Amino acid sequence: MRKISDEDHVATIPAPAAEPENPAAPRRMTLNMGPQHPSTHGVLRVMLELEGETIRKAIPDIGFLHTGIEKEFEQKFWQQAVTLTDRVDYLANLSNNLVYALAVEKLLQIEIPPRAQWMRVMLTEFSRLNSHLVWLGTHALDIGAMSVFFYCFREREDILRIFEMFSGQRMMTSYIRIGGLALDAPRGWDKAVGKFIRAFPDKVDEYENLLDANPIWLRRTQGVGYLPLEDMLDLGVTGPMIRAAGLPWDIRKSEPYSSYEKFDFQIPTRSENDVYARYRVRLAEMRESARIITQALEGMPEGAWRADAPHVVLPDREKMKTEMEALIYHFKIVTEGFRVPAGEVYQCVESPRGEIGYYIVSDGTSKPYRVHMRTPSFGNLQALGPMLKDTLIADSIASLGSMDFVLGDTDR
Amino acid sequence: MNHPAIIETREAFGEKTILAHPAEIVAFCRYLKQEEKFVRLSAVTAVDWHPAEPRFEVVYHLHSIERNQRLRVKCRLGGENPEIDSVYEVWRAADWYEREVYDMFGIRFRNHPNLVRILMPVDWEGHPLRKDYPVHGYKYSYPEES
């Protein structure tokens, strides 16, 4: 039997290719940033090659949070795997729930009743607000505007309470299930949502007032973190970063899902393509999300909150006590899962960070054959190297923060 | 769409899939980007059909913002020594996507600028998303207590 030696724990990192020595060139220093660095928002490691204070090369190193979620999917029943989707991105858990549910529903070809669709829209917009608030708070904190953090987390707390009211969980909601929702909306949900959403637009003005007249904030964000739009598209960047570069592309508009076409909202864009523009776009998106939530609250349809598909959706508790079929369906779904017809789909939604796409392959059994998650953070982070090239090391914090990545989402 | 690399075109659930010849993938992708306006490479992944042959399917998801269209391109590779040309020269996004596929499935991409593991540690053995890779267990056996 082989004993564990120290050598087993030493990760060998390939040395970067040596460049020809040029005595006239300024001396370069390699600086290791992260993986435990407060401004990298998680365990991201960036190797910076510096010439004085200028970054000549930045190489992101990821994988510290790799948990093998895609492998795990293949071991779970279709309905069990919903809980895994929460854990990909802790700030956009409902968007991940939604894209998984939509993809499996496409394979199963089941109709979702309007109430469930509208609830899904409302809650994913709440998770967008949640994510943007955390982003704004932590990003401002990185740059040095500390008080914004407390304001943002005050509203975030209210949103988490609403999530808790709906699903019983603050973060790992698993509320959107295959075939509808986990539960009907709780009693008094409209009051809680209404109270929050009436007050929210003023709160966004507050953040704006705190930052927009702050000369330090402006100097540290304007003109920083530029990358041409063509490069961004080529590198796989999606979401608010693309819109801050002037391209009005939003999956909610271009490929509407879950009845987004019935809502009236704008796609905010900016043309400056810097950290400041990304901040303005996200702020405007918060206002648009608040508008969508208000429309959902006012026009919420009555009726069923899950599909009429007894082979997929768990029956009512009441029915299980009186009807034999309901009991049989419950037993079958819980013990052996349900089968999904063989096929493959790619479903994408607009998450707070950009395009989440799930590519799901079914072989006709009760477990997914393959689930691939195209996560927005993974695509966005590829642009980090080109973006940091030839910028100052102090600006790297602002550029990095403006990308709004979640490392769990990157590494899966 | 007419290109010599296309083997078969299928449509299901409103999604178009093209099965392409692996030897001509780069030329085909360049054609798709330049002529058909698929400017974005959304994702690259693979599916392992172990123990069937050809074992691997490399799957490219393309997106055209201008035409608001998506397209899936698939290439089948044998399990013995899976290798395909890298599409990095067409879309730079392929850099990390292909590294992930290499890391998880052990499919090699020819002409890739930096084909090293990305999610797993660089000294890792095996490719976790292959179907014959165990789900449980640890790389080493624990030494017996003495």
H/E element sequence of chain B: EEHEEEEHE
- CATH level-two architecture of chain A: Orthogonal Bundle
Would you count the extended β strands of chain B for me?
7
Task: Please name the CATH topology of chain B.
Answer: Beta Polymerase, domain 2
Oligomeric state, counting identical vs distinct chains: heterodimer
The CATH top-level class label of chain A: Mainly Alpha
Structure description:
The complex is a heterodimer of chains A (412) and B (146). Chain A has 412 residues and is mostly helical. Chain A has a single domain, classed as Cytochrome-c3 Hydrogenase, chain B. Helices cover 47% and strands 11% of the residues of chain A. Chain A has a three-stranded antiparallel sheet with strand order 1-2-3. Chain A has a three-stranded antiparallel sheet with strand order 6-7-8. In chain A, a hairpin with a 7-residue loop joins strand 7 (354-362) and strand 8 (370-374). In chain A, helix 3 packs antiparallel against helix 4 (114-143), helix 4 (114-143) packs antiparallel against helix 5 and helix 4 packs antiparallel against helix 11 (275-299). The longest helix of chain A has 30 residues, at 114-143. By secondary structure, chain B is of the alpha/beta class. Chain B has a single domain (6-110), classed as Beta Polymerase, domain 2 (2-Layer Sandwich), CATH 3.30.460. Chain B has helices at 25-34, 94-105, and strands at 6-12, 15-20, 40-48, 56-64, 69-77, 83-85, 108-110. The relative contact order of chain B is 0.15. The chains are: A mainly alpha (412), B alpha/beta (146). Chain A binds chain B through residues 1-4, 8, 11-14, 62-63, 66, 68, 70-71, 75, 106-107, 231, 233-236, 247, 249, 254-255, 343-346, 348, 355, 357, 359, 361, 369-370, 372, 374, 378-379, 381-382, 411-412, and chain B through 12-13, 15, 17, 39-43, 45, 47-48, 59, 61, 65, 68, 70, 72, 91-93, 95-97, 100, 104, 116-123, 128-129, 133, 135, 140-141, 143-144.
